[in-house]
Amino acid sequence: MQQEAGLNRQAYVRMQVVLSGTVLQQHAQHLTLGSMVRVSGFLNRHQSRSGQAKLVLHAQQIEQLS
Length: 66
Prior knowledge:
Layout: E1 2-4, E2 7-9, E3 16-19, H1 22-28, E4 37-47, E5 53-64
Parallel strand pairs: 3-5
Antiparallel strand pairs: 1-2, 4-5
């Protein structure tokens, strides 16, 4: 939930995350569906073959919270 103009607003986004490197891939194998994680990295714009653009998070660090 985020507050905007004095009102509560539910904030939700679905975003593809790209993992590169063996350390991150090994760490990700231990995650289960519904796990809370903190991911840091950088955002990049990817374009599909059909020309549709989407925002992708390139993970540089993953921390499991729960």
